[in-house]
């Protein structure tokens, strides 16, 4: 708006009854139209996202229990936050499970995405097909059907154990074994590396081939070229994927919910933070407490993202400008 | 606004005079503002014009769906002014959905619930108080079994009406036991006798097949075990048993596991979290499952083998006439009279009773129960009657339905019992942990 209200140089022309509308008036009309067109989205943002978020902030200081009338809600101050850190052993367990999940699954997923993207970067016969095939799993996203299939494959009588049996290996009851259940979910998350892979592919296409040619002339092997050209040139894309996938990783819910039937079992091995939050809110009706959990979660993810951004300047290189 | 338009667009307004984009936009928005409520309003009206509509929500399977819909159709044919919108789903996720819609203030006018959820909902005033309709005989419970009626009362209010009666039952695979040449389990066994028997089943099978499910994480098995010793699970909103009791319970099943009577932890886990078709007696991994008496027919349909049932081990006074599920109304309903009338129809009408049979347990109405019993041809349903009738004079007094916070407590018991089955905690440590967490679960 600041731009359109500034007096333009050709102001005098408006006084002339011209056939053409003056530039600033047109811009102002367009700005108005833009706002009108944005209104539905803005209303949606306010009504569907912002208002419930503020409400949940309020609820986190109350004993709201989903079912009771609103007039039964009472203010409990910081009780919910206090309980979380002092009286809820499942809270700490879920924090541990979630951190383990994100710390293992996210780097491996990004590594898989980058590796496959590099393999599929060269134009060969059938590359398009392979790109589509590798992308396919992430189209299925956090679907319930996929989690159900996963549970069936990785159970004691599942097809994965039948496959291992061919090689004479006795399998595990993977999803029903506390030592393996979370790892099975990690494999599912890593397998869906299609989305970051596509972004990596686009990033790889942007790397000027002259750099590789020059390096090759200087006698750099593939590893050196990867380390000194691909990684630095790709660092903005890596940064983007890292931030996005970390947030995704922390928010994982569906697979754990479905595979464990909502229990976070066996023995709490798949009790992700989000699952704990859901259980507290919807099966134990402690919605005030669940809201507090959600806000602590939001702050934690915000802090981790901020950490990425503050360290980014040490390793992310932007090709245009000095980049630092 | 000038009438000259620098960007003529394809869509032309009807008036001959060309309008500016701004005015055109306003017209479009006005049209939308007028049209949307019209469409919605029309939809809303069409519902109201046809009379009373009642939302009806329950859980179950296909067979139950057919019966329930038939009974509801019968009601609607007798009351053409009432339309019943029935929705159902399987038990998995039923409570999640009920909580979500009830939390949104749109609780179904009538819904199915069981004692695990009743106090959670009644304690938060979600349920319709049926007491006045019972008093006025609009909802006639005079011919119902008193124990069942009482089991639907919380804080002196009739908050729900039993759909039927069931009792916990050990369901076993008769065919498989005959193949192995092992005796069938007997009524009145102690837990020690039962576990010794189960270990012998495992042994006879060569270790491929296990004698019994491990019910250590199942609140109802623990409850009956406590009651058989003259103890209780809850006293009001407090736990009525001690840490020593729970240690003994976990130890009992740990020893059973060591004797080979129960399957490995992961096999038990599959059945704990799963539904009917993952029960070990159906999946063919163990000879018995700890279930409810009315589930015999449902489990029987899921396997080719012949099933039968006995009461849980231990003194039979631990058992009581339990409401398998209830019908409850929503306090927010616009049609409380209709809600009471439909519940009255489903639990008292002889025709409805004949249609619903024993699917939700034995009918609560004495006359209906007798009629359904004499008309019974299905062997499993007959077995259910024999079982329940045989129990009738051995029942102990009914406890109060579990209190608010029970859902959380069940989760806690399940997770902590599993830490013993998976060997990550000793029975004593697990029991101590349970008592720490249980306080939080019940505090609400």
Explain this structure:
The complex is a heterodimer of chains A (324) and B (444). By secondary structure, chain A is mainly alpha-helical. Chain A has two domains: 58 residues; 237 residues, Orthogonal Bundle (MetI-like fold), CATH 1.10.3720. Helices cover 68% and strands 0% of the residues of chain A. Chain A has 14 helices and no strands. In chain A, α4 packs antiparallel against α11 and α13 runs antiparallel to α14. Chain A is globular, with a radius of gyration of 26 Å. With 444 residues, chain B is an alpha+beta fold. Chain B folds into two domains: 186 residues, D-Maltodextrin-Binding Protein, domain 2 (3-Layer(aba) Sandwich); 180 residues, D-Maltodextrin-Binding Protein, domain 2 (3-Layer(aba) Sandwich). Chain B contains 19 helices and 14 strands. In chain B, the strands form five sheets. Chain B has a five-stranded mixed β-sheet with strand order 2-1-3-14-6. Chain B has a three-stranded antiparallel β-sheet with strand order 11-8-12. A two-stranded antiparallel ribbon of chain B has the order 4-5. In chain B, α14 crosses α15. The radius of gyration of chain B is 27 Å and the shape is globular. The chains are: A mainly alpha (324), B alpha+beta (444). Chains A and B meet through α2 and α13 of A and α1, α3, α11, α18 and α19 of B. Chain A: Pfam families: BPD_transp_1 (PF00528). Chain A: One of its GO terms (cellular component) is plasma membrane. Chain A: This is Multiple sugar transport system permease protein. Chain A: It comes from Phytomonospora endophytica. Chain A: It is found in: Cell membrane. Chain B: InterPro entries: Bact_solute-bd_prot1, SBP.
């Amino acid at each position: 708006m600041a731009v359109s209200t500034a007096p333009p140089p050709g102001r005098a022309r408006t006084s002339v009854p011209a056939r053409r509308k003056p530039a600033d008036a047109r811009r102002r009309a367009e700005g108005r139209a833009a706002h009108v067109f944005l209104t539905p989205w803005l209303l949606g943002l306010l009504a569907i996202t912002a208002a419930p978020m503020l409400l949940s902030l309020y609820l986190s200081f109350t004993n709201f229990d989903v079912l009771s009338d609103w007039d039964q809600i009472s203010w409990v101050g910081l009780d919910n936050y206090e309980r979380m850190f002092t009286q809820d052993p499942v809270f700490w367990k879920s924090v541990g499970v979630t951190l383990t999940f994100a710390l293992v699954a996210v780097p491996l997923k990004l590594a898989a995405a980058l590796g496959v993207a590099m393999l599929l970067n060269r134009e060969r016969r059938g590359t398009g097909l392979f790109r589509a095939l590798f992308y396919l799993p992430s189209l299925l996203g956090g679907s319930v059907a996929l989690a159900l299939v996963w549970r069936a494959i990785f159970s004691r009588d599942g097809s994965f154990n039948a496959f291992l049996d061919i090689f004479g290996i006795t399998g595990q009851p993977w999803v029903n074994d506390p030592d393996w259940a979370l790892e099975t979910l990690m494999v599912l998350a890593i397998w869906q590396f299609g989305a970051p892979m596509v972004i990596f592919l686009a990033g790889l296409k942007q790397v000027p081939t002259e750099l590789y040619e020059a390096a090759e002339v200087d006698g750099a092997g593939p590893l050196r070229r990867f380390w000194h050209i691909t990684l630095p040139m790709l660092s903005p894309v890596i940064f983007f994927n890292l931030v996005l996938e970390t947030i995704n990783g922390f928010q994982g819910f569906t697979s754990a919910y479905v595979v464990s039937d909502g229990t976070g079992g066996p023995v709490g091995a798949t009790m992700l933070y989000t699952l704990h939050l859901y259980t507290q809110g919807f099966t134990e009706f402690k919605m005030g407490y669940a809201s507090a959990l959600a806000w602590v979660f939001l702050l934690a993810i915000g802090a981790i993202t901020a950490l990425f951004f503050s360290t980014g300047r040490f390793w992310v290189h932007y090709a245009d400008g000095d980049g630092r | 606004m000038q009438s000259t338009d620098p960007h003529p667009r394809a869509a032309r307004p009807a008036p001959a005079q060309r309008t500016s984009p701004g005015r055109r936009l306003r017209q479009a928005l006005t049209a939308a503002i007028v049209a949307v409520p019209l469409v919605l309003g029309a939809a809303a009206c069409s519902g109201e014009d046809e009379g009373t509509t009642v939302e009806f929500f329950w859980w179950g399977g296909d067979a139950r769906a057919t019966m329930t819909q038939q009974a509801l159709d019968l009601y609607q044919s007798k009351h053409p002014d009432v339309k019943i919108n029935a929705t159902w789903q399987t038990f998995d996720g039923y409570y999640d959905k009920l909580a979500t819609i009830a939390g949104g203030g749109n609780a179904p006018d009538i819904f199915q619930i069981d004692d695990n959820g009743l106090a959670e909902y009644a304690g938060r005033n979600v349920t319709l108080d049926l007491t006045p309709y019972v008093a006025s005989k609009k909802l006639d419970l005079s011919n119902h079994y008193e124990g069942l009626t009482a089991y639907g009362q919380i804080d002196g209010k009739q908050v729900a009406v039993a759909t039927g009666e069931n009792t916990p039952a050990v369901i076993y695979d008769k065919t498989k036991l005959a193949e192995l040449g092992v005796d069938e389990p007997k009524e009145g066994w102690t837990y020690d006798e039962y576990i010794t028997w189960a270990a012998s089943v495992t042994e006879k099978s060569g270790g491929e097949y296990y004698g019994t499910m491990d019910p250590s994480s199942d609140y109802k098995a623990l409850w009956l075990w406590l009651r058989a010793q003259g103890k209780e699970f809850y006293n009001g909103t407090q736990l009525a048993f001690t840490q020593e009791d729970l240690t003994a319970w976990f130890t009992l099943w740990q020893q059973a596991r060591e004797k080979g009577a129960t399957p490995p932890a992961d096999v038990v886990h599959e059945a704990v979290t799963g539904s009917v078709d993952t029960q070990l007696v159906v999946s063919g991994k163990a000879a018995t499952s700890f279930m409810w008496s009315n589930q015999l027919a449902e489990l029987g349909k899921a396997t080719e083998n012949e099933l039968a049932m006995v009461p849980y081990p231990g003194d039979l006074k631990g058992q009581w006439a339990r409401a398998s599920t209830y019908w409850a109304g929503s306090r927010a309903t616009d049609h409380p009279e209709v809600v009471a009338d439909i519940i009255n129809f489903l639990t008292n009408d002889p025709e409805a009773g004949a249609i619903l049979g024993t699917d939700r347990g034995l009918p609560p109405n004495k006359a209906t129960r007798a009629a359904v019993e004499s008309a019974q041809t299905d062997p499993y349903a007959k077995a259910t009657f024999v079982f329940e009738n045989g129990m009738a004079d051995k029942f102990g007094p009914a406890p109060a339905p579990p209190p608010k916070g029970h859902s959380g407590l069940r989760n806690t018991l399940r997770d902590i019992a599993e830490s013993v089955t998976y060997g990550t905690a000793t029975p004593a440590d697990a029991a101590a942990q349970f008592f720490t967490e249980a306080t939080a679960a019940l505090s609400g």
